[in-house]
Amino acid sequence: MLALDRVGKTYPNGVHALGGVSLDVELGEIVAVIGGSGCGKSTLLRAIGGLDPASEGTITLDGERIAAPHEKIGIIFQEPRLLPWLKVADNVGFGLGDRPKAERAQRVASALKRVGLTDKAAMWPRELSGGQAQRVAIARALVPRPQVLLLDEPFSALDAFTRTDLQDHLLDLWADAKPTLILVTHDVDEAIVLADRVMVMCPRPGHIFDEIDFDLPRPRDRQSAAFDFVKRRVLSALDRSLNRAVTGAEAETKTSAGAALWW
Amino acid sequence: MSAVSMTAAVEDTPAQPGTGRRWSRLAWPALGLILPVTLAVGWEFVVRMGWASGRLAPPPSVIFATFVDLARSGELQRDTLVTLARVAAGFGIGVTVATVIGAAAGYSPWVRRLLDPSLQALRAIPSIAWIPLFILWLGIFEASKVTLIAVGVFFPVYLGLMGAIQSVDRKLVEVGRAFRLSDIEMVWRILLPAVLPAYVISLRSGLGLGWMFVVAAELMGASSGLGYLLIDGQQLGKPAEIVAAIVAFAIVGKASDWLIALIAAPFLRWEDVVRPD
Known about the structure:
The complex is a heterodimer.
Chain A: E1 2-10, E2 16-25, E3 30-35, H1 41-48, E4 56-61, E5 64-65, E6 73-76, H2 88-92, H3 101-114, H4 130-142, E7 148-152, H5 160-177, E8 180-185, H6 188-194, E9 197-202, E10 207-213, H7 225-241, H8 248-254
Parallel strand pairs in A: 3-8, 3-9, 6-7, 7-8
Antiparallel strand pairs in A: 1-2, 1-4, 4-5, 9-10
Helix pairs in contact in A: 3-4, 6-7, 7-8
Chain B: H1 2-30, H2 34-48, H3 60-73, H4 75-107, H5 109-123, H6 131-138, H7 142-166, H8 170-178, H9 183-219, H10 226-235, H11 239-264
């Protein structure tokens, strides 16, 4: 279990980016973190990833304190961040440097097959499309078999079609080993398609404003009424987090899908 | 009738790209040869016809004969080797020092703050201005020449490496951190490959300056070397010898540059290079 206990972050320049976030995430759960810009959602993710350790509170994974990058925690960034001097296959195997060559080759091959890029193994990253590159990045993060996978707006730089494609693909890959996924996004649809829970954050300092649990069967139909209902709940929570509408009933009517485009 | 024109068209089509490709493969590079070859042949013709004496500007055939004579007597090889040895020593020293200081200054803001202002001030001095001082300090023999070359090589390599390290993509370094690379692994697997393209470019421009300064050093006083051959040709009034030495400089200079490019090529194949044409 991943446990966050009153996690806060104050940068050396005095900016109080995160103030007391507590959150428990079970193994295999998919949690989406959503919120306007500057609400500390990326800061939170980087703290869990150990890249920018929290300045207050504790983060533990199965009781083990996380203060630096951990082998059981993988991370996928907004950009693929492939190493341009390594072939696609070597990028996928980047996290397996300490494994025997045969094992590495076998695991890389199966990961590439899993993301449908076997034929690109010998290519340079620059020869890939944006969607392909992000699939390679996903494969690279999954190859060391992380227990927790952090995703920082992983599909936001992609076009709409590729994005929905990769969302479905991610769920498909998740089903293999069912790691915990924590997904930072500003796309409400993406959060609802992927997650079991949506955490809505708001700024000054960043904290969890509301939590929306829902139990929609997968695969989720983006057009269904149930999906739309959850979307309304998330959008209303977002609206309230920004002090746009106060009463719940009012929020229900005032909220429109367009509000999500505010950021 | 239509069948005839059809076959004609079918036969025509594959032939055209073939000739087009052959044209571009052979004639395109040859285009650059037209000017120098025309000038050389033209000058040869002018001298042969007796329209010019060619004493101060010898025609290609005389230069070639001088080149062959110098090579046959062993003088050309000996002088080339001497010059090559000076450049190699100066280049080796300059690159080593520049790499150490450049890497330290690129990596550590403290070192950069400490050394860079002084080095930038020194860089403003045209390196050839050091020659008299180096001769006073180090004598007129090899030490002063090698030092001058090393100073010339130092600056482009130092600046290139420092800049390259500072501009390594922080996002890629973070990938290394996320995969828990040790410091040594970080240098070996992220920083070194990221810095290599700019480093190779700086080595090549450093080498170019090395060749420039070996000429300056040898012109100032030497009893051997290609630069000495230049002076010798001037003092004895043998322009063909001067041109032969220049040609030798061009050949070894280009060859040494090509050697660096050749050694680096397998490591830089990933680069998104815009190929000529």
